[in-house]
Amino acid sequence: MKNLLDVLTADRGLPAGCDRWGIRTVHPDLRSRHGYRWPWPGQWAHAPGPIINGNGNEYPIEVGDGICLARTWATMALAGVPAVTLLLCAWSSADLLSSARGDRWRLRRAYVVDIADGARLVRDHGRDADLRGADLEGADLERADLRGANLRGANLRRVHMRGANLRGAVLRQAILQGAVLERADLQGADLQGADLERADLRGAVRS
Asked: Most buried residue among 43, 143, 146, 162 by CB atoms closer than 10 A?
């Protein structure tokens, strides 16, 4: 399935001194869940510290113990901020503070390359995308083409998907409380275990 990080980096070269790409979610003011303020594109983000040298995993033990980037929407959701404002970042393996085995990395620093609109990215490139576990709460996905997308376990609370094409999409265990699915095409969509409480399904096409 399509990883939307690859979409963002398809026509880009890595900045000097960097050998990997990563992405993360932030609030509109570029702050993380714990208040760290990420810089504008073109600048390095530095972990405020103190760095805990005995911590070998991808999660900070305390605030300041590294900054985190992800490769997938599921791991990006662990930042605790809906994927509305995204930062495309590059980093060097020399700045890795944890194992590189998974899809989330704890780093000493990262270079901010660009800001992306997460909802627009999904609207424009969501077809056949791997969006498992994504946190898209409150996103505007009106008329999005999400055919064949994997949204298993995604947080879609209050998402606006009026007229969206969800044919064949996987929505197992997805949270759709209060979502607007008016006139959405849900033919062949897998909704097993999905939470549709208070969802607006007026005019939606279901098989």
From this structure: 146
Indicate the CATH number of 126-207 among 2.40.50.140, 2.60.40.2550, 2.160.20.80, 2.60.120.200.
2.160.20.80
Q: Which residues contact 21 (CB under 8 A, 6 or more apart)?
A: 5, 8, 9, 14, 71, 88, 89, 90, 91
pLDDT digits (tens, 9 = 90+) for 46-89: 999 999 988 888 888 898 989 999 999 999 999 899 999 999 99
State the pairing for strand pair 205-206/185-186: parallel
pTM: 0.92
- Residues contacting residue 35 through CB under 8 Å, at least 6 positions apart: none
Please check the confidence at residue 138 and state whether its pLDDT lies above 90: yes
Pairing of strands 109-117, 205-206: unpaired
Residue that is written with structure tokens 């900054």 in the block = 67
